[in-house]
């Protein structure tokens, strides 16, 4: 790699709406550039986390370097940076885009442009990337490539007549994609002799190598022995190794210079030293200023996470710290709950992100978690002029101290076929949406624009959208800002004791409905005790709903003779085991999953 | 039956040091087999085992499967206690239960037992049956108590719908019209009240007996006496090891002496647990001294916290002299809740 030609490098990513075939196309590109044999290919090479493959989505930005011999006889280095497709992960898309010079836009030949297609293309254009479209799934009976080509030209306004018509799944038309990568995506620029300026777009913790920084070299050169400095955090270390990425493998090399994408290791032990979005420079010959940062990451959804077993608190802390290394959008800080003990208030990009982190903590770190109801950040304006950013409902000041409260509002674009416009508008109304307008894309589809409170869409909006449009609606949103709103804290009392971990903030108009559902749900979750247990929902000390868990009446085995004893003992053991998974609150034992029940209030649909 | 005899004879060596106190022929319907087998079986026990002179020898009989002649043979073979599965006096309820007999067949059977010389009989009855009402259950109680002579022993069970049975399936589909749990408890305590008035003692959760007629065999299970089971799937407890026979008919008949599943040796902890959850089924409860003699540790030391908590909750009762610990009436209603706490 000592001598390489910048003009033979292509740094690009693939953007698409979810399920339009981005990961499959990535696989084909890797396959046909011959870095790996077919045998080495797993079903989806880039999706290397177990969880990703199960959910069929790409969570983490990943990157791979392959070599392509083009029709002009030259060898080109392709650095393909994969991006997630879900709306929760816009930030990850954004930071991956910043490492690229161009993007392939994949559009499904049957479905055409969807909400995230637009969102991702605009994001790519914002980063000054050259975008060329690819029409995928042309082998589907319902494919209408020409219609989609016209749609791309009309709606997005980019040239699409010579877009490759492909089937990534069946390997059709991939050659043309590879050629267009060479011809349509510009080669990187940058001076290898200039002071080092590299962008961290991802990182990974490895127990042998320490933190592995994934970066794009903008200017200059980095090699083993270079003392690097992270411009934002100030951390300094000597480089141990540089290299590039195979599929799931690291290949060390001599040096990385301007235009290249690769990794750096420098025995960095403290994960906090390598903030994603930071600029790496040479400590002895620093660049004048850091690269313009990525779009700043913002946690949108917060919830409390507690170890089911209080003794596992340090394990949870370590696990969160490790996950945060690979996921800059996760943040957390310690908190204490009367009901749940020591835990963390964690911030996520959205509910899917929350669920993924939760599952990873449980699977990869073997932790049993209790999670409280997710909420957004509210701004509480106090009468004394102080403004509190509230992430935990329990910290809401006394109502007498509050002047007013604000909640985050998003601007949402929902793309839907005409027949479902009515039901989707109804859904948006129910979620306190404010109608902004509607545009027809073509004869049969429209984009609905709404302003919606974020807390109305974090639970199950996406599911509701899908179920009310038979899967046809797609959705994307941007944070608009904060607006004053009539919000109240809903408290839950179990056996007349307030359970802090069950409180949540809700719009005053839906408090009664939510309180009632919550009580019903908890009534089913809490087992019968020796005594009757009232479950109450209250707003500002006033009870608005009540259910009762009746006292235990009968739990007795009629027969227990010689042949039954072993089996009956197992029964008792099971009963005792069940009690272990309970949280004691006052003299009531509450199953841990009850704390998540607020999430499932709308599951009747 | 051939295999069963082989097993009984073949195991005798293992039990040379034991004196047989009780025998129970049951589990299924032993009264359907030819009487000669029952005679052979008991003869074999007498020949190969050391039997106590006053051994209790019980046998289960179901109405509709016996006549006076069969009962006379049982009596001659040495059976001295019969357990008759009546369940209900309502033919309709019997039908739902899948029983082949009617109440009138039971009355015949019951009359023959006295004629054949049996004076120690148990009658099984059941509460909480599908379609059963408080009235129909009281009718069963009333008719059983007016039998002449009254049975010396009554086992009154509540129907428990076990997972994987046809009843469980019907119940899932809400096609099983089971009494409410409140009604079931009313049936239970009504039984208690009426049988006590009639002179019975309530000696275990589901068992009542005239003074001196409690089933010694079953008490053996709750006091963790050693017992040896013969036949398919039969369970045993010998010197704190629990084991069972193979429950496959073919395997059993092929090698009746070599079809035991692996034995489980009970740890001291497990023995204590069993001592408590079995012993507390008896209304007299567990004897504190017996616990301490058996394990060499104080009951308080091991279970003090659980005992105090449950006494506070009104579920356990300690006799005034501190000698016996027993479930209260309320404790019986939710005995699983209490007993589960005695698992260490």
Most strands sheet of chain A:
8 strands, antiparallel
Roughly what is the average pLDDT of chain A, rounded to an integer? 85
Mean pLDDT of chain B: 94
Got a strand count of chain B?
A: 13
Q: CATH top level of the largest domain in chain B?
A: Alpha Beta
Shape of chain B: globular
Strand order of the largest sheet of chain A: 10-9-15-6-7-14-11-12
Strand content of chain A: 25-35%
Written overview of the protein:
- The complex is a heterodimer of chains A (605) and B (344).
- Chain A has 605 residues and is α+β, with helices and mostly antiparallel strands.
- Chain A is built from 13 helices and 32 strands.
- In chain A, a hairpin with a 2-residue loop joins β31 (582-585) and β32.
- The longest helix of chain A is centred in the C-terminal third of the chain and has 16 residues, at 565-580.
- The model of chain A is unreliable at 36-41 and 51-61 (pLDDT under 50).
- Chain B is α/β, with parallel strands linked by helices.
- Chain B is built from 15 helices and 13 strands.
- In chain B, strands 1-2-3-4-5-7-6 form a seven-stranded mixed beta sheet.
- Chain B is globular and about 55 Å long.
- Chain B starts with a helix and ends with a helix.
């Amino acid at each position: 790699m000592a001598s390489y030609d910048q003009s033979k490098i292509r740094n690009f990513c693939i953007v698409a709406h979810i399920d339009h075939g981005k990961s499959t196309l990535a696989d084909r590109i890797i396959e046909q550039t011959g870095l790996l044999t077919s045998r080495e290919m797993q079903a989806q090479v880039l999706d290397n986390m177990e969880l990703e493959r199960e959910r069929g989505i790409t969570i983490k930005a990943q990157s791979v370097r392959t070599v392509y011999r083009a029709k002009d006889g030259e060898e080109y280095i392709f650095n393909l940076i994969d991006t997630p497709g879900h709306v929760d992960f816009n930030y990850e898309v954004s930071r991956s885009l910043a490492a690229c010079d161009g993007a392939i836009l994949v559009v499904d030949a049957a479905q055409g442009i969807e909400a995230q297609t637009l969102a991702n293309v605009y994001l790519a254009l914002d980063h000054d990337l050259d975008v060329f479209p690819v029409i995928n799934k042309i082998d589907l009976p319902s494919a209408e490539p020409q219609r989609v080509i016209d749609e791309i030209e009309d709606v997005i306004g980019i040239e699409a007549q010579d877009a490759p018509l492909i089937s990534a799944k069946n390997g059709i038309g991939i050659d043309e994609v590879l050629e267009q990568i060479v011809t349509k995506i510009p080669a990187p620029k940058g001076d290898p002799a200039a002071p080092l300026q590299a962008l961290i777009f991802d990182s990974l913790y490895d127990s042998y190598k320490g933190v592995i920084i994934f970066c794009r070299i903008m200017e200059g050169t980095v090699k083993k022995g270079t003392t690097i400095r992270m411009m934002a955090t100030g951390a300094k270390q000597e480089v141990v190794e540089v290299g590039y990425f195979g599929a799931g493998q690291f290949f060390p090399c001599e040096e990385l210079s301007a235009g290249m994408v690769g990794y750096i290791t420098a025995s960095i032990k403290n994960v906090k030293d390598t903030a994603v979005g930071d600029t790496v420079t040479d400590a002895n010959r620093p660049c004048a200023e850091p690269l313009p940062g990525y779009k700043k990451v913002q946690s949108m959804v917060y919830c409390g996470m507690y170890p089911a077993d209080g003794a596992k608190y340090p394990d949870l802390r370590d696990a969160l710290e490790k996950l945060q290394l690979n996921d800059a959008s996760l943040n957390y800080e310690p908190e204490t709950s009367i009901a749940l003990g020591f835990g963390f208030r964690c911030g996520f990009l959205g509910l899917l992100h929350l669920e993924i982190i939760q599952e990873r903590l449980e699977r990869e770190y073997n932790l049993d978690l209790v999670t409280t109801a997710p909420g957004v950040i509210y701004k509480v304006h106090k009468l004394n002029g102080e403004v509190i950013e509230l992430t935990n409902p329990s910290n809401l000041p006394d109502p007498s101290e509050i002047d007013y409260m604000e909640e985050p509002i998003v601007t949402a674009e929902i793309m839907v076929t005409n027949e479902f416009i009515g039901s989707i508008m109804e859904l948006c109304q129910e979620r306190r949406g404010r109608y902004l307008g509607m545009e027809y894309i073509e004869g049969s589809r429209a984009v609905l624009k709404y302003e919606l409170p974020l807390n109305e869409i974090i639970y199950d909006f996406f599911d509701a959208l899908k179920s009310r449009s038979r899967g046809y609606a797609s959705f994307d949103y941007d944070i608009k800002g904060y607006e004053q709103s009539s919000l109240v804290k809903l408290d839950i009392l179990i056996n007349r004791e307030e359970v802090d971990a069950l409180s949540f903030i809700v719009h005053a108009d839906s408090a009664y409905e939510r309180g009632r559902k919550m009580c019903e749900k908890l009534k089913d979750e809490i087992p019968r005790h020796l005594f009757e247990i009232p479950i109450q929902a209250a707003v500002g000390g006033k009870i608005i709903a009540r259910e009762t868990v009746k006292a235990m009446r009968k739990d007795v085995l009629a027969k227990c003779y010689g042949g039954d004893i072993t089996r009956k003992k197992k029964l008792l053991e099971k009963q005792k085991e069940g009690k272990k998974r309970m949280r004691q609150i006052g003299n009531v034992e509450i199953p841990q999953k009850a704390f998540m029940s607020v999430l499932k209030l709308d599951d009747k649909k | 039956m051939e295999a069963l005899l082989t097993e009984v004879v073949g195991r005798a060596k293992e039990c040379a040091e034991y004196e047989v106190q009780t025998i129970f022929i049951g589990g299924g319907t032993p009264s359907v087999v030819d009487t000669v087998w029952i005679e052979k079986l008991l003869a074999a026990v007498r020949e190969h085992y050391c039997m106590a002179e006053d051994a209790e020898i019980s046998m289960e009989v179901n109405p509709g499967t016996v006549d006076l002649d069969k009962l006379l043979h049982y009596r001659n073979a040495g059976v001295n206690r019969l357990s008759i599965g009546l369940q209900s006096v309502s033919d309709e309820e019997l039908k739902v239960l899948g029983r082949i007999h009617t109440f009138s067949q039971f009355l015949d059977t019951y009359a023959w037992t006295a004629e054949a010389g049996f004076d120690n009989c148990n009658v099984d009855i059941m509460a909480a049956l599908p379609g059963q009402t408080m009235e129909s259950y009281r009718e069963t109680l009333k008719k059983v108590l007016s039998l002449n002579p009254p049975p010396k022993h009554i086992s009154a069970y509540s129907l428990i719908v076990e997972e994987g049975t046809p009843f469980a399936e019907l119940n899932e589909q809400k096609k099983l019209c089971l009494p409410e749990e409140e009604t079931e408890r009313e049936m239970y305590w009504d039984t208690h009240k009426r049988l006590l008035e009639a002179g019975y003692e309530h000696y275990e959760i589901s068992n009542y007996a005239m003074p001196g007629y409690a089933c010694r065999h079953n008490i053996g299970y709750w006091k963790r006496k050693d017992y040896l089971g013969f036949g398919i799937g039969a369970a045993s407890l010998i010197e704190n090891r629990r084991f069972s026979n193979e429950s496959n008919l073919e395997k059993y008949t092929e090698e009746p002496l070599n079809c035991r599943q692996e034995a489980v040796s009970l740890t001291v902890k497990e023995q204590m647990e069993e001592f408590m959850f079995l012993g507390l089924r008896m209304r007299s409860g567990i004897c504190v001294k017996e616990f301490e003699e058996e394990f060499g540790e104080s009951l308080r030391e091991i279970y003090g916290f659980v005992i105090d908590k449950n006494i506070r909750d009104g579920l356990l009762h300690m006799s005034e002299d501190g000698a016996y610990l027993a479930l209260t009436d309320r404790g019986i209603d939710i005995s699983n809740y209490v007993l589960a706490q005695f698992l260490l």
